[in-house]
Amino acid sequence: MSTSSAVPKSTSSRFSSFRPSPRLVRGVDLAGQWAAPIMIVVVMIIAAVYAPAFYQPTNLKTVGIQIAVLGIVAVGQTLVLLVRSIDLSVSAVLALGAVIVVQTESGNPLWISFIQAFAVAAVIGLANGFLITKRQVPPFVATFGMLVFVQGARLAYTKGQASGTVPAILRAISFEQIGPIPAALVVWLIVNIIFIFILRRTRYGRWIYAVGGNPSAARYAGIRIDAVVIAVHAICSMLAMLGGLLLSGYIGYVDLRLGSDYNLNSIAAAIVGGTTFTGGRGNLFGTAAGVALLILLLNLVVVLGLPIHWQYAMQGIVLVLAVALQGFRQFLLSR
Amino acid sequence: MAVTVEDARERFSPCSQQFVRFLRNNASIVLIYGIILLVVGIAAVFNENFRSPSNLMNIMRQSIILGLIAIGQSVVILTGGMDMTVAQVARIAGLTVATIFAAQQSNPALIVPLILLGLLIGTVLGGLTGILITQTHANPFIITFGIASILRGVNLAISTTPIRGIPKPYLQIYEAKIGIIPVNVIVMALIWIAAYLFTTRTRNGRALYAVGGSERVARLSAVRYNRTLILAYVFSAFCAAIAGLFLLARTGVGDPSAAEGMDFQSIVAVALGGISLYGGKGSIIGTLGGVLLLAALSNVFNLLQVNIYYQQLFLGLIVLIAVAAYKSPRSAA
Amino acid sequence: MQLSHIEKAFGGIHALADVSFDLSAGEIHALVGENGAGKSTLIKIITGAYTPDSGKIEIDGITYNSLHPSQARDLGIAAVYQEFNLLPELSVAENISLGKQPLGRNGLIDLKSRASLAYELLERLGAQANIDPNELVKYLTVGEQQIVEIAKALAINARILIMDEPSAVLPSRDLDRLFTIIRALRDEGRGIIYISHRLNEIFELADRVTVLKDGHTMATKEVFETDNSELVHLLVGREMTDMYPPRDNTPGEILLDVHDMCVDGVVFDVNFNVKAGEVLGLAGLGGSGRTTVCRALVGLGEVRSGEIMYMGKPAPMMPAAAAKVGMVLIPEDRKTHGLVLNQTMRFNLALPNLSQFINLGVLNISREKDAVLKAIDEVQINPPSPDLSTENLSGGNQQKVVVGKWLLANPKLVIFDEPTRGIDVGAKAEIYLRIRELTRQGVGVIMASSELPELIGMSDRILVFHEGRLMDEISRDDFSEETIMRLATGTEIEEASA
Description:
The structure holds 3 protein chains of 3 kinds.
Chain A: H1 22-50, H2 57-82, H3 90-103, H4 110-133, H5 139-158, H6 168-175, E1 177-178, E2 181-182, H7 183-201, H8 203-213, H9 215-220, H10 225-251, H11 262-272, H12 284-303, H13 310-333
Antiparallel strand pairs in A: 1-2
Helix pairs in contact in A: 1-12, 1-13, 2-7, 2-10, 2-11, 2-12, 3-4, 3-5, 3-10, 4-5, 4-10, 6-10, 7-8, 8-10, 11-12, 11-13, 12-13
Chain B: H1 6-12, H2 15-25, H3 27-46, H4 53-78, H5 86-103, H6 111-136, H7 140-158, H8 168-175, E1 177-178, E2 181-182, H9 183-201, H10 203-213, H11 215-220, H12 225-251, H13 262-272, H14 284-303, H15 308-324, H16 329-332
Helix pairs in contact in B: 3-14, 4-9, 4-10, 4-12, 4-13, 4-14, 5-6, 5-7, 5-12, 6-12, 8-12, 9-10, 10-12, 13-14
Chain C: E1 2-10, E2 13-22, E3 28-32, H1 39-46, E4 54-59, E5 62-64, H2 69-74, E6 77-80, H3 92-96, H4 111-124, H5 142-155, E7 160-164, H6 172-187, E8 191-195, H7 199-205, E9 208-213, E10 216-222, H8 228-236, E11 254-263, E12 267-275, E13 279-284, H9 290-297, E14 303-310, E15 313-314, H10 319-324, E16 327-330, H11 334-338, H12 345-350, E17 358-359, E18 362-363, H13 365-379, H14 395-407, E19 413-417, H15 425-440, E20 444-448, H16 452-458, E21 461-466, E22 469-475, H17 481-489, H18 491-497
Parallel strand pairs in C: 3-8, 3-9, 6-7, 7-8, 13-20, 13-21, 16-19, 19-20
Antiparallel strand pairs in C: 1-2, 1-4, 4-5, 9-10, 11-12, 11-14, 14-15, 17-18, 21-22
Helix pairs in contact in C: 4-5, 13-14, 14-15
């Protein structure tokens, strides 16, 4: 282990003679990997001392459901980040899901509106992927444009009115428990298991890491990069849709501002969990830890009786710290 | 830009050729102003309210806030970055000033110091953002996204409800007129001219293009990379702070949801104006076009009484079309 | 300027071992050497991009251990690289004075004097008639851009001008103009380091020539004292080692048949075939189309016309499909094209072969592991631990991983592009053994390389490329470095036409 040193990758590194010690690189590396799990433990200890209310069953259940929703969205976001892309349209898709399912109960069977919802999500994701691969639009611009468009479409459709009733099944998933565990959390677990399996035990998972790690090598290895990226975006949108459905079941009505924080939080969770912007690095265990940490912190703001808007500051600080740490690590590695 | 140069000019370029080159190098600017003319022309023909001088002046005035923010955004995007904090910076400048006014019984004597304070806040925040980006080498888009979230929390901590108590003379900033031309439109014009000169005719301004064009070339050509980047974010936040102060004068209340959506609108205006989102290419004149187009469109929508939500849909559609028509640097090269 | 005993190593490999070089004012000093001889490393040390491990740099009588880029610029050292340092979206005038634009009295950039400065410099280079200072650089031809680069160097009043293979990117009609410019600069008293592969240019242009080889200075000669054959000898003449295992293969039937292949403006009318169990060498200088041919065969790159038949059928022009029928390319530059560096050996070795381990859509990890271990054993990667990240491997081991991952695909035709660049002697020998073994099994091998001894040692036939065209096919009996070099540098045609 101790022999691994910073390999000089000559690109952009020739402007200063600063060479970090391997120990520093490894330290930053480890900090990036273990920050989330360690912080979770620390936060939980702090909570036990200063905010015992955190451990009340009702609060834990809330935390569980919030983890489930963000966790499912963050799985998609992680996949997207793994292929060097990003998805800023998740929040719009999330909100759209609720609208489609809640407001189209004009006699249609429920399963049809579910299918509609996921089909719409898939189309949005495919469009994102198409813009990014075939038109070579920078991912954040493409998906940000999609965000505005989808939001506009949703508002045009609902005319800004919050209405409709949430189907019973969604309410059930959000409020029933399976044993001691909220059903939503079970959904989250299942999604994680499926995608961890896909990433580790299928060709598709390998392709994702290869495309993100080195697109050129992936191409030489016969992988169709564009197809992988487009598919990943479609999956991400569909997971965001699933998250939206769970969320609307939990909230019980369609809120106009529903889901607006999920862009930032899903990215923050993935990054905190060790996934990089530069692609090919990261995993869903890390993301799950990142999600849990973020939700814990946001929940503590509430439990400690602080004004709710400190949540914004909290999520911002977490994101900035994580990104800064990661940028620094990347910088060290490029030396 | 077409530039006059003594003898070289005649040798190479008869007038017609210069004109062709001007069109080629400024295609996106010609295009955006063409579209503006088209929109304004059609609206003027079909809607008599639209073509009234006061309405046209209104469009100008409505474009001030976005215009200011978009100048700063242009400068940052020219370096290949992006500033998602602008709306929050505008908001924090306005809120701070409003809070102090309210606490000091609307004392008019505080107007000048508080304006300076507002600008200082912007400058400091921009400096912090710039330093964070240059020192951590992090992705500017995401890091400013995070900073924006922090600032949003801070803003809500300052106040969750509109703050009243702005002194009357402060409101005059927005209302004053010389003839029919509002003073603020004049101020605006001056700022645009200054920004134009900055980006075309100063070393620091041109360094933005070098930095956004290629880090390697910029560094090899003795352009100060980090300083230029930090300067860009300072400039952007400074412009946003001015916008926030203007907004305070317009609405008369310190609004904790002021400038909502301006981050994105400013990026849209910049992109519509033809500045490459990869940096290093485009002109601030194009951004002005983008701003005016957005203002004209929203004016037309309001006159036609289009539902605000359809307006949003339409904005999204414009963005998607602009994005889909995007030309990558590779295919352009 | 004087450089003495410069050394520089990267990760244990000596790019430069004891190089000395000097340049006086008013001379053109040519620097020649094969790929990897250390030319570019030397330039980077002179321009301050790299810090030498040891050695001295002396300029105007002042001795430096190393230079900073800004220091080098202040000393008047400028380089014109093959890859231009211009901003295509800015005007010629602005590019020339970038970093130090002239200010007028009002504190703004003085556009007039900026343009006239550019005009003046271009006039000195005799290019004022062709290049408009106000034109955007992206609309200039490559030759014109090069002149702008030179003007940019003059703008900082460069006294030492380094030209890195300026002729490689130029169409030949621009070459005369470039030479005129370079001579004029010399006559102004500037020192010019001229790097080129083309020996005839050196005789036409340079005053002195230094030959670099494997990081050593072989010789510095006055140009009039030497001749073509001596230089070729210095360039290639190394002691032959017995690294190359003896030939024990018998070429079989034709595997791949290429007719009149043209690739998008780079390669023209190429005809050749490859037989099972033979090694076909592809020789040629950088940019001669060698690599393009390799890439095109597996469908990376646009084949404009021609017919490529593989085992009697049209070749599938897609990397994945090509691999499926046993045609694989082992690319040059393992770090950019060969490996996903942040992943493990197992990941990389398995990547193109995942379909072998798939069972009902699921990867069979134990089968994958067995195959990977077998591959590791076969190409002898040491340490044989499949879960090691490839970024921590030595260059030789990395290259073995790249080779191993394609051998796992059970290929019938393997295309090697620069199989041994930048790896140590031991690893090279093992790669050669591997190639021999492949041919013994009846696999056809195409080997593109810039190292002539390797081509001569391994190939059954050698094809020589020059400027996108196939010059000739040389059979075993006629192999010699001189012959190949002559064909590859195009000396033959020029002599014939002269």
